[in-house]
Amino acid sequence: MYKDFTSGQLADALERVKDLSPELTGPLSMLDEASLGWTSRYPQLAEPQQAFSQARHKQWPRTRTEQTWQEVVTTAAALSTALRELGDIRLERCTAQTGWGTCGLTLPEQGPCRAEKEHLAPAGSETDQ
Questions:
Q1: How far is the CA of 14 from the CAs of 35, 46, 54, in angstroms?
Q2: Separation CA 34–CA 20 (nearest Å)
Q3: How far is Cα 80 from Cα 14, in angstroms, rounded to an integer?
Q4: What's the pLDDT at 125?
């Protein structure tokens, strides 16, 4: 759901974390996954993304406290701020077909997709026989 968001849209979603119930771990997981894709292209996001990821992993029913929830809210806000520094841009993702569907990995600024070996050959190519 969030992986197709622009940096501004993802930042908005992260800012709204404070309005969620601490019991809803699904949206936190999806935000974590979506923000992780940005770190391979923008390494300056790695630290705030990792902090958010670690905080949201503490939100399981047996380990959840008011303190762990505040850590989630704080780290989500910090990650939101870092994403806003990029402007409102869209992350380029690989559209090649794989055995499981569209690749979807973040494309590097230069060079091929990291999962290029998993891509299917185009129909009618020499390797498609």
A1: 10, 15, 15
A2: 17
A3: 6
A4: 60
